Every structure is written in structure tokens, then in C-alpha cells.
Amino acid sequence: MAPSTPNIQTFETEDQVAIALAVYILHLSAKFIAANGSFSVVLSGGSLIDTLRKLTEPPYVDSIDWSKWSIFFLDERVVPLDHPDSNYKLAYDGFLSKVPIPESNIYPIKERLSPEEAADEYEQRLKDLVANKKLRTSEITGFAKFDLMLVGMGPEGHVASLFCWHFQRFEKIKWVTFITDSPKPPSNRITFTFPLINSASEIAMVVTGEDAADAVKVALGPHASYGFPLPVQKVSPEGGLTWFLDKAATSEL
Question: What distance lies between CA 127 and its chain's CA centroid?
Fold first, then answer.
């Protein structure tokens, strides 16, 4: 199936990005809950969590049926959940603690496992949720099909913990894999793989700030098809791909 053409939305400021993102998520939440009775959302770490802040404020916070949401993590540092490097802690402090999503609907990694064990355990949990009809399945890939993935990008173009020169970016079989040599600390991480990422119904690429401008230029500029692609260029969901960019992130375009 040919990938859909991305919808590229550019805003003057990060605050305008945050408002547009809240409106987009509000609409998708209502749509998927009406269709399926639930809304599965995958979070990444970094500045994305702060850009979700409008969802914790009126009118958005009162307009969403949070009881139908379930939350997963695109990648995670293999550290305790209360550790400053934990993506779960970042998401909890900045977003999850401020909205009434049932705790049983939030799926952090299991603590005190090796990176390989943590990846295998998380993948098995996803497969169990698919088997129990709590997650849908992609008819194309057979992988779990999340309703919405909220994806940030590193300044050199990585997404999740899929880095430019790591073989994990080429994984085709596993749903969740692991790395022990992240180029930025902490070195031990688990991460969704591209086949799982690209099985999603909708992906929002949320990229703000000047430090992302070079990678945005490579990914979206006139020479995007030249040379060895950045990991972010492999994001190509079955459904819709929407980029949310501020002026600083597009300053090189």
C-alpha cells in the first residue's frame, strides 16, 4: 500500500503548535471512541510532553472521555519508573497526573528487567492485548494497530530510540526491540520498531525548536529522497501522517 501524503502544518510559535495539537487530538479521540469505544495513544518523551499541556486545560480537558483512553510508550529508558530519565515519569509529571485516565489503562515498562527482557515483556503484553481484543490489529502487517502515535524527533533525525547507525532501525519481525548503546544517555532502552510504528492509524510528528531545523530540512526539503534516509523519513503510517512544526523548526526549509 502506498503511503499517504503527509499533511504538513506549520505555525509561528510552539504555543500555536500546542493548541493545534490539542484540537487534533480532541477530534481523533471523539472519532475513535465513537467507532471503537476506545482510544489507544502512544507517547514519546522529550519536549512532546510539554507540547501536550493544552490538553490538561479547559476547554480540552473537559471535552475528552479520558476513561476510554489507553496509554503506551513509543520507547523507554530501562531505568526505574521514578528515575529522572524515565519517559513514564516525564509523561506522568507533565501530562498523565493532570488528566483522569484510569491507572489500569496506562502501560509503563516493567521494572528490574534487562533491556532484552523488558522489550520481550512489553511486546508480549501488547500481543496479549491484541488477543484479548483490547488493541486492534493491522490487516496489512498483523502488528498491533494503535489509534494515535505522538512522535517527537531528535536533532539528528532519530525517532523513538531508532538511531541513524543502529541496525534496530531495520528490524522487521519484532514489535519491540532494545538497545544497550544509545548515543545519548541512558544507554539502555527499549523501543517500538518501524513495522509497529507504521501500523498505526494516525501519527503526529511534533517537532519544534531551532535544533530540529537541519533534520526537518533533510526530511521535508527538496532533496528528501537523496542518499541514506534519516530514521524520521521511515515514518509512514497506514493511515494519516500529520507534521506539527513551528517556525523555528522550519527555519532551514
Answer: 18
List CB contacts of 58: < 8 A, sequence separation 6 or more: none
Cα–Cα distance measured from residue 6 to residue 243, given in angstroms and rounded to the nearest whole number? 7
One-letter amino acid at 4 equals S
Three cell numbers, residue 66: 479520558
Is residue 212 classed exposed, middle or buried when 0-12, 13-18 and 19+ CB atoms within 10 A define those classes?
buried
Q: What is the pLDDT of residues 96-136, one digit of tens each?
A: 999 999 999 999 999 999 999 999 999 999 999 999 999 99
Buried b (16+ CB within 10 A) or exposed e, 103-139: eebbbbbeeebebeebbbebbebbbebbeeeebbebe
Pick from 70, 78, 151: nearest CA to 120: 78
H/E element holding 49?
helix 48-51
SS3 183: coil
d(CA 204, CA 55): 15
Dihedral Cα 26, 89, 153, 102, nearest 10 deg:
-30
